[in-house]
Amino acid sequence: MTPPEVVVTGIGVVSAAGVGVDENWKRIVSGEPTADHDPELDGLPVDFACRVPDFNPVPLLGTREAGRTDRYTQLALVAAHEALTSSRLRLENTDSTRAGVVLGTVSGGSSTMERQEERLLLAGSSAVSVRTMPMGLVNMAAGVLSIHFGLQGIALTTATACASGTNAIGVARDLIRSGAMDVVLAGGTDAPITPLSSAAFHRLGALSRRCHDPAGASRPFSADRDGFVLGEGAGILVLENERHARARQAPRLAKVAGYGASADSHHVTRPHPEGAGARRCMRAAIADAGLAPADIGHVNAHGTSTRLNDEVENAAIASIFGDQVAVTSTKGVTGHPFGAAGALEAAYSVLTLTTSVIPPTANLTEPDPRITVDVVAGTARHRNVGAVISNSFGFGGHNASLVFTAA
Fold first, then answer.
1. With the C-alpha atoms ordered 8, 12, 13, 18, is the resulting torsion angle positive or negative?
2. What pLDDT digit, counting tens, does each position of 10-26 carry?
3. How many of the other CB atoms lie within 10 Å of CB of 58?
4. Among all residues, which ones are annotated catalytic?
5. Inter-axis angle of helices 110-123 and 195-204, to 10 degrees?
6. Strand 183-190 to strand 18-19: parallel, antiparallel, or no bridges (unpaired)?
7. pTM check: above 0.90
8. Of 247, 273, 288, which closes a domain?
């Protein structure tokens, strides 16, 4: 029996580019950076980040629920509400045992954990909140979404570093193709902008040190890039069995046509120097979609703005596509929101398909001569693309790619 097609019927996004799809897409297409000084990082060597502006979950969640959830869960809840609204899915008419959640995250409730450790050190164990673990655990965003929306099928968390959100969407697609689920809220969420994260990644040499020019700090594929910028956000896609979506006359935005994953098996922080794992991952996703490289019209690159990662991804893309495909990294706008990155970029990939607009890579004013692929710079390109591949690569050698095609 042929596995069912899996379609995207709803999208919800929250990032430093704004709250909601429309606000995000406008800023992504304009290539307008978001990085700015962050008061929470005052006194640290890197004191800027890409934080969601004026984020207030209370109007949607209420004071009680907002007060007992970490920021990373709040971001996911807000994105999920938008995704479900746009999908026109009426949960009361859906078999809840065949509807689930798969979310990726890296940091989980790290902000809660850091605040409570400060309380422990300053005032002792009695000062630690009883909500610390329910708010801080990495699985809790998926659990809270399951509870909040009454989804009883599965509540699963993927933790594959910066590939987490992409893996979550791939796993969700496979659950639907297997026949286990009809509907899955899939994506990623992270809120890692904390003093400890900033200090730790600075010590690792991974963060941009462009404190004099935060807006210009995230500059993927640029000759003078010097590291990534901490970001935060959430991206949620409503994935459905296509037959289920057709039966309820749902909007079908795109098909999740292909998924590939691989492991570098090389180093805990550095990618394979020849991009072997990234190549396998992309080829697997393209083959899974039943396509050839020539069918791919756009690559939404991982493109972190770190020197080594951008070079390795360039080599991997070039080995498959040459210079015949348009490449974009949206992290020049959003920074790097870790486990949410792949989910946000999956959403932007779907929007490229539905709007026929390929966004530019922000801050790319001086291309690195070692980057040989066709990186979109300056302004967006208006072009129909039949298929988009979205890449995510993470510490530990985790690689994941998704292929989206028109529905």
1. positive
2. 999 999 999 999 999 99
3. 12
4. 162, 302, 336
5. 110
6. unpaired
7. yes
8. 247
